[in-house]
Amino acid sequence: VQLEESGGGLVQPGGSLTLSCQASGFDFGNSNLRWYRQVLGKEREVVAAIFIVGGTHYYADDVKGRFAISRDNYRKKLYLQMNNLKPEDTAMYYCQAFVDREYFGQGTQVTVSS
Fold first, then answer.
1. What is the DSSP letter of 21?
2. Would you list the DSSP string of 9-75?
């Protein structure tokens, strides 16, 4: 199982970024997938999830209405569109899949600052 995030960077408050996660080594199309973020010194927290049953989504309260999770099963890619970014969104962002256990990528850093 491999997960590789990209798309992070430095953005001003109010700006947008789209994160991507390239997956391989497992049945991507039949897997629930999540985006997590972690600030140094704090626990990793789930930001968004996309489920194969019903195609439903989950969002943490503080990103609802600003972030959107999506997937491309053909390309085996997971996305996180982030709009109206705030300084408190600054974190390392990870995609996650549960196969035989939890797998995370190496992360991509998002910094929101003026």
1. E
2. EEE-TT--EEEEEEEESS-GGG--EEEEEE-TTS--EEEEEE-SSTT-EEE-GGGTTTEEEEEETTT
Number of helices (H), then strands (E), in the chain: 0, 11
CA gap 56, 62 in Å, rounded:
18
Q: Which tens digits make up the pLDDT trace of 70-101? A: 999 999 999 999 999 999 999 999 999 999 99
Q: Which residue in this structure is represented by tokens 């789209």? A: 18
Distance CA 74, CA 58 (A): 22
